[in-house]
Amino acid sequence: MIVEDDDFDLLAVRRVLRRSGAAVELECVTSLADAVTKLKQHRFDLVLSDLSLPDSYGVETIRKLSRSAAETPIIVLTHCDSEDLGVRLLEAGAQDYLTKRELTPEVLSRAIRHSIQRHEELVASRHLLTEIETARDELARQNARLEKLNAQAQHFVDTVSHEFRTPLTVIREYASLMRDGVAGPVTQEQRRFLGTVEDRVTDLNTIVDDMLDSSRLKTGSIGPRRKTCRVEDVLGTMRDSLEHKAQRRNVRLSFDIESQLPFVYCDPEKARRTLSNLVVNAIKYSGNPGTVVVEIREDIDASGVVFSVTDNGAGIPPESRSRIFDRFDRLGDLDPQNSGFGLGLAIASEMARINFGELNFESEVGIGSRFYFSVPLDHPNCIANRFIQFATQTSEAPFSLAVTAFRVTGELDADAENAIERILFRELTQSDLVKRVGPKEWVIGTATRNTETRAIAARVKQAIEHEGRNRPQGPLPHAEFSPMETWSLPWEHESALIHLSRRLREPRLKTQEFNHAKHVC
Ligand code: ADP
User: What's the pLDDT score for residue 518?
Assistant: First the structure.
């Protein structure tokens, strides 16, 4: 279609077209309105258009034409030869522009060929883009559906696991009472059967704990309950049940614990879970006859205590090593004797991290494996170093590391102390450091922005007030936060390390210093 209101120009274009030898069918119109009407009625291969028409002028003509014929290439024929105009015409939707003065059959036929070709490519890529966008929308819809289903499944697993806990404990307790003869005399064989019931229930309990822990770890709802403790606090009563398990599997389990180990700084329950999962695995996957050795020693660089578990099992093939800590990955273990869901190592690794350590392993096929992790010594330098390392791994760089002093004034009996620590652990996250540094004082480290520290302070104070109101012993003591230092990491790593260690070593701010700290809140 030629859109041209000047008879002379129209004649000239037609002549050039004819001479170019192009076999074309022509439709000629003299106004924009007619062109738009024709474009609605027919599909044209190309529009050659003048800019000045009786009902439209300049770039606007092309914009309107291109709006009514997105599928048709437009070449502009103009008297004006300006680069600026050319750019604006292309932006408005033209494929090309030619000056009428220089119009030759060769120029026109080349422009027509190129414009049609370019436009076809453009239309094809637009179609492709639309298809991609439709596919992306569909994918987003499917993802949302899957996320919802996943959340429902997780909720279902959480509820079922939770509901399993009490009956399992009851079954185990009653089996144990019967085995001990509390409900009347039992034969040797009955005692053996009841022992099996007890063991199997204990296994089931471990699976239930794994399910619940895995879900809590995923949502980050496990608080930072790290404290100064002894290695014996970590071991608790786990040795008995592990030894029992080893016996049942005919595995020789031994503990080699260095004497006089220093105090450590960790959440003993999480360290126990980590160690227990490793020992249970070592027993499950050890050789025949099985041997498992648990070693607990101070780190060579004296920064922590290392817990390691060595077995004489089949080892882990090199190709499976990268996915050993993935949730639900069992590395193809289908032995019905080895019950499990592939959660044990994922949980152990996450819990080792929460204790500012890292779960590692070395393994040789046919010889066995050694899994190990360490927890920091209860020493300001060790804690500061491990905390900063942990924050650097868990926060997106660059980030701020803020240290806040938290203290209470007034009577602090054991019950109030517990209540306050419980609130602190609840309101802070796994990545925060909460270290008791004096009878009524804590140092809090957060990898966060200052505004967030203030929000945490407000939440903790509100919780203390709220809990105090419902306490039969009366309100909890008054609490205050005092932001102290903030460092930008990774740049101020050294300074953060030195000062945080000092804060943990010489924590007590003089009351005057505390009160005059910049923003007591
Ligand atoms: P589960 O034991 O429930 O399968 P885990 O996460 O504890 O889940 O372990 C994942 C997989 O890693 C196991 O299925 C097993 O194939 C392998 N594995 C774990 N510990 C050992 C070990 N000590 N020796 C050999 N393979 C192991």
Answer: 44
